[in-house]
Amino acid sequence: VSLVTELKRNLGFICLHSKISLYVFLSVRMSMEDPDDSCPEQIPGVKEALKNNDTAGAAKRIKEYLEKQTNVSLNIAITGESGAGKSTFINAFRGIGDEDDGAAPTDFAESSKDPIPYFHPDYPNVSLWDLPGIGTPKYPADKYLRSVPFKKYDFYIIISADHLTENDVKLAKEIQRMMKKFYFVHSKTDNDINVGKKKDFTAEGTLSKIRKNCVEGLQKQGIESPQVFLVSSFEPRLYDFPLLRKTLERELDVQRDNLISDFCG
Ligand SMILES: Nc1nc2c(ncn2[C@@H]2O[C@H](COP(=O)(O)OP(=O)(O)O)[C@@H](O)[C@H]2O)c(=O)[nH]1
Ligand SMILES: [Mg+2]
């Protein structure tokens, strides 16, 4: 038992250090009652190290293994109508200007009919895929859902400017049908705040009105517990942009945990 405790301690340190929240999971899985059922021992080299009381060596093997296993990309589809602000959102998320090298082309420029991946310097495993706009003459909704390879993503962000549209709802329903997750992002919130100001609305008043419209609008269409974020890609420090980043980071952790859990069976 002391061997297990020591290994857990080593793992705890490693996981904390590498910000991978697997310690609890591995702790639960570690059982000396039935060593063959113990996931970490299936990792090459771990069993041998444990036999030799080399807990530090075993922990090192597990860490190396986890790092390799968790080095999978999380593919996020950025979808929505043309002009909703998809490409601008991707640039803002990556912390670059629309005119910078490697930026997603904006201003209604559909750079390609194929989705294009963009990477974040701080999250090298995360790819944001700039999808074409739904509901254009080239891509009416039904054709879009069939022709754009829509199903292959791990996660979806629907970008919507102004009001909730029929196409936004179609996207949300399709993602829910596929039993995948999405965030609903109301873009161009800076515009709403400015319009609200002219009508003497407070910023809080405007934000809560938009949030209510989005959440209730989606719920009325049968979307369960929609996660709604109000952002401005021109002001990524304001509104829900920082919360969106944090929530996505947690999502990445969940994906990693799922990966390890899949491996352990
Ligand atoms: N005011 C404001 N305009 C935005 C915002 N995001 C995008 N836009 C503008 O909306 C237009 C369409 O944006 P774009 O990213 O090309 O839309 P896409 O077709 O969905 O990729 C561009 O002129 C952008 O500058 C935003 O957060 N605030
Ligand atoms: Mg675009």
From the structure above, extract its key features.
hydrolase, Rossmann fold, IRG-type G domain-containing protein, binds guanosine-5'-diphosphate, P-loop_NTPase, alpha/beta
Describe this structure as you would to a colleague:
The chain is an alpha/beta fold and 265 residues long. It has 2 domains: 2-69, no CATH class; 74-255, 3-Layer(aba) Sandwich (Rossmann fold), CATH 3.40.50. The chain has helices at residues 2-17, 23-29, 46-51, 55-69, 86-93, 141-147, 166-177, 189-198, 203-220, 241-264; strands spanning 74-80, 116-120, 123-130, 155-160, 181-186, 227-230. It has a 6-stranded mixed beta sheet, with helices on both faces. Helix 7 links the parallel strand 4 and strand 5 (181-186). Residues 13-38 have low confidence and may be disordered. Bound molecules: guanosine-5'-diphosphate and magnesium ion (MG).
Secondary-structure topology with pairs:
Blueprint lengths: L1 H16 L5 H7 L16 H6 L3 H15 L4 E7 L5 H8 L22 E5 L2 E8 L10 H7 L7 E6 L5 H12 L3 E6 L2 H10 L4 H18 L6 E4 L10 H24 L1
Parallel strand pairs: 1-3, 1-4, 4-5, 5-6
Antiparallel strand pairs: 2-3
Helix pairs in contact: 1-2, 1-4
Guanosine-5'-diphosphate binds next to helix 5 and helix 8.
Pfam family, one: IIGP
GO molecular function, one term: hydrolase activity
Organism: Maylandia zebra
